[in-house]
Write a structure and sequence with these properties.
By secondary structure, the chain is of the alpha+beta class. It contains eleven helices and 25 strands.
């Protein structure tokens, strides 16, 4: 600016002209030396630095200046007392240990000035806490005068004294065409769906397809506030553990707020919010809210691909639905029975069972198919057994069998025309007991006396069919049958042909080849 004024002076301009241009030169000089303001864009970061450091002249905020040795991370505290021990990673004059619990209560546990930096903590007065509501923290007083403070650490510890798991169970019906669900907050499509009560504050239901898990809830409240919300907790792997991790999802819906997802994952140095999974959930999630009538309704479609990496959803998974009303006094209610400070504990959640559509019909079809298969198998076995027995009887007839079997067979042949021939008469003729005859037939032929007698009669009729001049009634009576009709059924059962048809076949063969009476039929 000075050089510019000198140039104006050398040109011998009037002083009033110099004073006239002086403000303009001052403005140009200021804009040339000042840096333009930079606008910082709002970005969504999918990864967060674990060890955040904030500093000023006195305070330093970090997450890695010390670590809790006892209790170790991911510990379930089951009693009423525990030893809390902190191990600083830098020189300190003293250490302050505190715990945050029950949402926003902070208790100082100890202020220690010499190692070991440990203290006994009595938490008998505290209710059970999940990994988000129970958070330890510390404050280190450095010799240089600085104070190193940590943020409360979530996802590390749990207080859970109750071992009993929730036995709540909700059945989720499959959606098949023409049924559809349009996510618009209107629950008219859910009228035929049985909804489960959430205490006295509302009710909910799940439905599913191969792609989405649909959720609907109806909440009754006097006044709707921005603090009101309903949370859906999902455990697709049904771990039923005390800690949540990357396999669990907690999704919050509010009538006066946006949806919010909670997913804790292991980053290697600890557990923290997994923004990549949360971003995937938010991208695929669709939901609507409708207020009025003394409450509000929520309807949502949650994609299965954002719940787990399984190709198909499991038929059972852990779940809970909780409602929190911000109207004073604040109220909280859960479907599965968890409390406000244990609602992120999967061990407190119930079970959702996916039911396939038309399941009874499918079961009936499968059972009918199995029954038909069993019946067919039994028929095949009986036919094979019958054929085997027939072949065995014929083989024994040609070989003769034992002396006792030949005696039985000879007695039957001699009295073939006797329609009243019985086991007792054969026993008297052969001088054998009835038990002995049954034993011989069972041992050598695996048949009863009635079966063997029927086989001999039918086989004799087969031989007589070669005499084409004999009438069928005569053949039947010579073999011990009353008439031709009585012969037809056992003959067809043994030779799979009617006697008259069988005789015609024999006659045709005799005209062609004149075979021997015992020659097999081709």
């Amino acid at each position: 600016m000075t050089s510019t004024i000198q140039q104006l002076s050398e040109r011998r301009l009037p002083v009033r002209h110099v004073l006239l241009f002086l403000p303009f030169f001052l403005f140009v000089q200021m804009t040339a030396t000042a840096e333009p303001p930079v606008k910082i864009p709002d970005l969504q970061h999918l990864t967060r630095p674990r060890d955040t450091v904030k500093t000023d002249s006195l305070y330093l905020t970090t997450l890695d200046s010390a670590r809790f040795v006892n209790p170790p991370p991911r510990t379930v505290l089951t009693g009423n007392r525990s030893t809390i021990r902190l191990l600083p990673r830098c020189p300190v004059d003293s250490v302050l240990i505190f715990v945050r619990h029950s949402f926003d209560n902070v208790d100082t546990l100890a202020h220690l000035s010499s190692p070991p930096y440990s203290t006994e903590w009595d938490f008998s007065s505290l209710p059970d806490q999940d990994q988000i509501h129970l958070q330890f923290g510390y404050r280190l007083f450095h010799p240089c005068g600085r104070i190193i403070t940590s943020k409360p650490l979530p996802h590390q510890w749990v207080i859970s004294r109750a071992v009993k798991k929730s036995r709540k169970k909700h059945h989720c019906r499959q959606i098949v065409p023409p049924d559809t669900v349009i996510v618009d907050g209107d629950l008219s499509e859910w009228k035929r769906t049985r909804m489960a009560p959430i205490g006295t504050a509302g009710r909910f239901a799940f439905r599913w397809t191969g792609v989405f898990l649909y959720f609907a809830a109806e909440v009754t409240t006097g006044t709707i506030t921005p603090s009101d919300f309903i949370e859906v907790h999902l455990d697709p792997a049904l771990t039923r553990g005390s800690f949540t991790d990357e396999r669990h999802r907690s999704i919050r819906f509010g009538p006066r707020s946006r949806s919010f997802c909670i997913v804790a994952c292991d980053t290697g140095s600890g557990y923290m919010q997994c923004d990549s999974i949360v971003s995937l959930l938010n991208e695929g999630l669709s939901w609507r809210v409708k207020t009025g009538g003394g409450g509000y309704t929520i309807e949502a479609a949650i994609p299965f691909f954002a719940l787990s990496d399984q190709e198909f959803p499991q038929m059972r998974f852990g779940a809970d639905v909780t409602i929190r009303s911000g109207t004073l006094p604040v109220s909280f209610v859960s479907w599965a029975g968890s409390t406000e400070y244990t609602r992120y504990n999967p061990g407190k959640w119930g079970t959702v069972v996916l039911r396939q559509a038309m399941l009874p019909l499918k079961i009936f079809i499968v059972a009918s198919g199995i029954l038909i298969g069993v019946i067919c198998l039994v028929i095949v076995i009986l036919l094979l057994r019958h054929l085997f027995n027939s072949e065995r009887l014929e083989r024994e007839e040609h070989t003769g069998g034992s002396e006792q079997l030949r005696a039985i067979s000879g007695c039957i042949a001699d009295r073939m025309t006797d329609r009243s021939l019985s086991l007792a008469e054969v026993a008297r003729t052969t001088a054998m007991s009835t038990e002995s005859i049954e034993a011989v037939l069972q041992r050598e032929l695996e048949c009863t006396f009635e079966q063997y007698l029927g086989f001999q009669r039918v086989n004799a009729a087969k031989q007589l069919l070669w005499d084409f001049d004999l009438p069928m009634d005569t053949i039947a009576k010579r073999c011990g049958f009353d008439n031709e009709e009585a012969l037809r059924e056992p003959f067809a059962r043994q030779f799979h042909a009617d006697p008259a048809v069988f005789r015609m076949k024999l006659k045709e063969l005799s005209e062609e080849d004149e075979p021997e009476p015992d020659a097999p039929i081709q």
